[in-house]
Amino acid sequence: MNGAGTTTIEITEFSHYFGSVQTLKRITLDVLRNEIMGVIGPAGSGKSTFLCALNRLNDLVRGSRVEGLVRIDGQDIYGPEVNIVELRRKLGMVFATPVPLPRSIFENIVFGARLAGRMGKEEMSELVRDSLEKVSLWEEVKDRLDSSALQLSGGQQQRLCIARILALKADFILLDEPTSGLDPISTMKIEESLRLLKRDHTIILVTNNVKQSARVADRTAFFLGGELVEIGLTDRIFTAPADRRTDDYLRGRFG
């Protein structure tokens, strides 16, 4: 893993507001290159807001404002010189509900890449195969690339959405409850894909399934009421949490 263990996202005293409502409270943490960071916490704890702050999707909501600093590869992403379109291409987002385009499987993969620059037919075909192989979807769909993506199962659609991000050459994969509506087998396939993808990408996984974070995350952060309660190696968080609130949440005493 080239650069593994080095800091790639630095968040310092970061707060977020929707109008007068504070949703994140002075968050300070680093995300390391080529790691899977799990983010857990009960509903309303600020997990999704935190994720959307990283590629500035919160900007689309009226009244959104921030304090503090977020640096990605050394750049202040809230600085006036930031190209938000490029930022969102660099930090690809996958939501709980798959949102494939109402187009063919092939077109779903090449659509964004084609907009980003001219591509030849052979180059597009290679891109489609490479992206689908990385999410273990190629063998399942290689004979029906011209079929509508909407005909895929929910789990296949979700992996297609991840493949679409890979086709755009995203450095970061942001996942917001990506398996919440999926069956165990589909969930397992996505988790297996994430373990492979972290060789070349940095992944942040927001999940309400604490067992999922335990299975795939290198480090886990626990959010509660907009605060970062603690962050650490996943094994340590789950076996010897430093904060009683973390222990109570993991034991199911609330949330």
Helix tally equals: 10
Note poorly predicted spans: none
Mean pLDDT, to the nearest integer, reads: 94
What name does the CATH topology carry?
Answer: Rossmann fold
Query: Class in CATH?
Result: Alpha Beta
- Major β-sheet annotation: 6 strands, mixed
Number of domains: 1
CATH architect. name? 3-Layer(aba) Sandwich
Beta-strand content estimate: 25-35%
The arrangement of helices and strands along the chain is EEEHEEHEHHHHEHEHEEHH
Tally of strands: 10
- Proportion of residues in helical segments: 25-40%
Q: Give the CATH H-level superfamily.
A: P-loop containing nucleotide triphosphate hydrolases
Radius of gyration: 18 Å
Gap from first CA to last CA: 36 Å
What is the 3D form? Answer: globular
How do the strands of the widest beta sheet line up side by side? 6-7-8-3-9-10
Structure, explained:
The chain has helices spanning 47-54, 84-90, 105-116, 121-134, 138-141, 154-167, 184-197, 210-216, 234-239, 244-250; strands spanning 7-18, 21-32, 36-40, 64-72, 75-76, 91-94, 172-176, 202-206, 219-224, 227-233. It has one domain: Rossmann fold (3-Layer(aba) Sandwich), CATH 3.40.50.300. The protein is an alpha/beta fold. The strands form two sheets. Strands 6-7-8-3-9-10 form a six-stranded mixed beta sheet, with helices on both faces. The protein is globular.
